[in-house]
Amino acid sequence: MFRFRAPKNNWGRSDSEATSFGFLDGDFLERFLLFIDDRQALHQIMQGQSEPERLTISVQRIQRVLERLQSMH
Question: Following DSSP, what letter does each residue of 23-34 receive, concatenated?
């Protein structure tokens, strides 16, 4: 999927994506907050490109969770 985000060490890319099921990329998630004021982009994100990608919880709820997670680090 996002192989470019896979961990990298001195020997190259890791084969860890097979073992990283359920991993959440904080940098990727925080990008959502960049679109809070852009209604059109936010609508596209929420709809996704297919039914499995569609986000069904509210934008406000996602924003609160992400901001809370941001404050933890």
Answer: ---HHHHHGGGG
Nearest to 24 by CA among 46, 2, 49: 2
Half-sphere exposure of 37 (CA within 13 A, CB side): 1
The pTM of the full predicted model, rounded to 2 decimals, is 0.64
Q: What is the pLDDT of residues 42-69, one digit of tens each?
A: 999 999 999 999 999 999 999 999 999 8
Alpha-carbon span 69 to 2, nearest angstrom: 22
